[in-house]
Design brief:
Helices cover 36% and strands 33% of the residues. The chain has five helices and twelve strands. The protein has a five-stranded antiparallel sheet with strand order 10-1-2-11-12, with helices on one face. It is globular and about 45 Å long.
Amino acid sequence: MEAIIGLRGRDFVLLAGDTKIAHSVMLLKSDVDRIVEIENHIGLAYVGEPGDDQQCVQYLAKNIVLHSMRTGTPMTGNAAAHFVRRTLADGLREHPYNVNLIMGSVDREQAGLYFLDYTGSLAEVKFCAHGYGSFFILGLLDSLYHDDVTLEQGIIMIRKCLAEIKRRLLIQTPAFCVKVITKDGIRLLSPEEMAPRVE
């Protein structure tokens, strides 16, 4: 019942993910952070089978950092996305990872958002979602998104998406973690920033 969302602006990326891990009818954990920060300019949001998702994301993150250590230069978001795609595609033949990913990055003030699934497919997109919540919010994002979206408008869109998931998804989601990636790095948005504004 997980859900992750990604939205790209001109110079930022917003990533959101629910904070629960469930198995069958049991809630196992309600404070998980589904958005891994890599080298302060790449965020990797994930959903998938518990265990598989953690192992896969840790392997990917550590290898991206290892590449940067070996070469002396940080891996760009585009290069990291293609590395992840290749890793998932190679894994299909030996040890498939049942994990779907959204990668966001900001390199030299250029934002990138990448949609990846367990089969190793990759697409650069303006907005995307994985999980059961995606059924309810892709149409909403399609109607709200425009190319010149500002960070504040993006936060409002994510806020509307989270409200729609909470309202329409049968299994209630306890909370969401939302992070923004800019040229200054990655930061967690506070509950106050995500709360609806009263005007």
